[in-house]
Amino acid sequence: MGSFASLYYRSRQDISNNGFLYYLFRILRVIVFDIIHFFFVYRTWYVYEHDLHKMLNKREEYFIPPVPNLTHKVIKNVDEARVIARQGYDLLDRGDKVADKLLHGAIAFCVFYGTKLMHIGWLCMTEEARNSVELVPYRIDFSRMASIEGSKTMPEFRSKITSKNPKSYKGLMAYTYFKRAQYLIKRDIFIARFVVLEENTPSQKIMERFGARKISSMRMIKILGLKFWRENPDLKPDVSRPSFMINSKPTK
User: Fold this and answer.
1) Which helix (H) or strand (E) holds 49?
2) Domains in the chain with CATH codes
3) 86-95, 136-145, 175-184, 239-248: lowest mean pLDDT where?
4) Distances in Å between the alpha carbon of 128 and those of 54, 62, 189, 247, 248?
5) pTM of the model as a whole
6) CA 3, CA 13: separation in Å to the nearest integer?
7) Which three-class secondary structure state does DSSP give residue 209?
């Protein structure tokens, strides 16, 4: 029931913001893409590693988005999500299996405009939590690292919050990334990893400005539902690479 309510809410927002014809076009496009992707998908992600010592001298006020009535909340479990839901915050109504990710141990870093969710970013400190947020099976040692994954700005707030000074890196994604890094530093964890799609250059630029570096690429071929994964540690296309893995995760 919750998923249906979330879908209904997002559909209403999409139609209100963009019109019914655009909404219908998006539905048809999704159907066509789903048919194509059933037969064949090829995608590449870059795996980033960030030494969070580089964040020690960063100041929070430098990253706070210029948004009135902004509230930031860290939600560590479903009980906390239900508490803020009773206060009017719409976190559990926004889809993306929020409750499921919380149940698997992922921690939600949320930015609200009043009580409306603007942006959510996830922090994963176990493999179970990471797998609930990000299905790309890149190598990570959770005994000394954490996974900073799954940032998303709600559709009605995309491209509406911009900084007058683009070099300030202010924005919703940058802010929740800073808060997640801060959370780890306070717990003496100074290495974070995450993946970014090859074509997502804006996110890559933000992460590299923070000081994160590419350590490998992760390629996936999907044929008739069967996934083949390969991680290339040195990012060079002309050297030998590990064999493909079928529906399995790389060893740490």
Assistant:
1) strand 40-51
2) 41-246 (3.40.630.30)
3) 239-248
4) 27, 33, 18, 16, 15
5) 0.75
6) 15
7) helix
